[in-house]
Amino acid sequence: MRTRLTNCEVVDPGTGERYWGWVEWEGGVIRGVGRTVPGLGDPSGDGGAEAIDGRGHLLAPSFVDLYADFCEPGFEYREDVASGSAAAAAGGYTAVSVRPDTEPACDGEDTARFVMEAGRKAGRVEVLPIGAITRKLAGEAMADIGEMAAAGVRAVGEADRWVARTGLLRHGLEYAGNFGLTAFLTGEDPALVEGTAHEGLVSTVRGLKASPVAAEEVAVARHVALAELTRTPVHLLKLTSAAGVRILREARARGVPVTASAAALHLVLDENAVAGYDPMTKVWPPLRSAEDRKALVEAVADGAIDAVVSDHCPRGIEDKELEFDLAVPGASTIETTFALLNRLVLAGELPLTAALRALAVGPRGVLGLPGGSIAPGRPADLVLLDRAVEWEVTPAALASRGKNTPFLGKTLVGRPVMTIRGGEATFDRLRAAR
Questions:
Q1: What mean pLDDT is predicted for residues 325-354?
Q2: Res 320: pLDDT
Q3: I want to staple 319 with a disulfide (CB 3.0 to 4.6 A). Which of 50, 117, 231, 315 is the partner?
Q4: Which CATH superfamily includes the segment(s) 62-367?
Q5: Is 46 a catalytic residue?
């Protein structure tokens, strides 16, 4: 059946086009686009398509998340693939890469297929497991990378763990490259880390155990060197510092096959957020200085940072209702990521097209996924966004089982109202409100 979404502002972040118009799709593929004027709808429609009134909202390619924790198998009390998928669809996503640090770890074909099948059963988003580089994420022996690649895994990584044996990591990257996979690497050298606050004025005054920027700088430099050596594409997950951005820019200028992302919270919060010892603000890597935050936003704006990840990490009450140093890092963020970037757009810090590019175009490029553009012949993977709506972040407002967010009880501006995957609505606040 043909469906036509009318009366909306269409934004294609890949081309920079922005116009008032309509989009029509059938069989999961966009069949046509057209331009009109606000409030006029689509005077050329022949009446043969199901019509959806976009009510003046903004239509963009759907979002892809490169790094989230759906916790299954093993930690379903925090989240499972079904609840995580529902939260992702509510956040505007149609594909999500999920971390391998489950129980058992995603270090072989069986677990990878289990996660993908759970995603298919949930039916909301394409769930893409990140395969482990080492068995059980122990950093001692290589995982079954070839088997996971054959099962459909597109990327490998060690979640938030540090592989101490650089030689083993090198061989893991070489092996992954042979199968056309990308290596997702996070970075802090643990030898320099004492805690999960940024080493700066706030941690010193508040007496918090801290991590210096140098811990990230050393890790990022190592990962860039390995990418240059092996020529395997490396994605630097969750950069937090101006130093990390500098190394990234230098590497890309030399032609090293590296891409990078920043987490949404690191773009809107800095070290001052932890001054009140709120465990909800405890994330890994830590929130850095105001200057670091500014450098990250600038890198997203000019495209040096390819993607913004949610770094969705649901935690239980028992993990967070502790003093800051004892609390477990992590925040539930997949449903608020767009609103956080919209805050930067409304403040004039980030162009709208850059924000959408980092959510929809850059992540697809990293994983080699289709879509990311609104044009005939492209997948009908879309998100309709209300950029002006104010909403309070409450436990009831979140589909995720994780309610651990520093924005709980606060008002955010902007949220998805409809998510469309393959031409079918996987989340629909627009028509549910009728």
A1: 97
A2: 95
A3: 315
A4: Metal-dependent hydrolases (3.20.20.140)
A5: no
Question: How many angstroms separate the CA atoms of 224 and 245, rounded?
Answer: 12
Asked whether the beta carbons of 13 and 357 are under 8 A apart, the reply is yes
Strands (E), 186-270: 197-198, 210-211, 234-236, 258-263
Point out the catalytic residue in the list 12, 311, 381, 386: 311
Q: Please give the average per-residue pLDDT across 56-72, as a whole number.
A: 98
* Local structure of residue 108 (DSSP, 8 states): S
Spatial CA neighbour of 128 closest among 195, 181, 169, 171: 181
At the fourth CATH level, the homologous superfamily of domain 3-59+377-432 is Urease, subunit C, domain 1 (2.30.40.10)
DSSP symbol at 31:
E
Asked whether residue 220 carries a pLDDT value surpassing 80, the answer given is: yes
DSSP calls for 320-331: HSS-TTTSPP-B
- Reduced to 3 states, what is the DSSP secondary structure of residue 408? coil
Q: Tell me what the mean pLDDT of segment 278-297 comes to.
A: 97
Domain ranges of the chain: 3-59+377-432, 62-367
Res 41: pLDDT? 55
pLDDT at residue 424, rounded to an integer: 97
Query: Helices (DSSP H) in 21-160: which residue ranges?
Result: 81-90, 109-122, 145-151
Return the closest-CA partner of residue 174 out of 241, 252, 233, 119: 233
